[in-house]
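Thread title: Can someone regenerate the structure for this chain?

I was given the following input by a collaborator and told the matching structure tokens would be attached. They weren't. Posting the sequence so someone can regenerate them.
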Amino acid sequence: MKDSLTEQDIDRIIEMAWEDRTPFEAIGYQFGLGEKQVIELMRKEMKTSSFLMWRKRMCGRSAKHRQLRNASISRFKCSRQKAISGNKISKR
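Best answer:
Regenerated them for you:
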């Protein structure tokens, strides 16, 4: 896991991980973390009950995995969201 993550980066990663439509690939694109690293971060940063609730919710959710998504969805973001330009925190 990257040691250079700020508290703001960690907050944004957790927020993105909770979002239904944001795939793990989008988190990887912005922060360089793979799915396993996101899971490790979530386990470390969240209460156990919250982490377990998140894992149960994410398990098998096709929107969180780009390969399982409908082929017509080709973007990482909602059409109303600001453009993601590789900027670490694009929403703020």
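The two ends are 23 Å apart (CA to CA).
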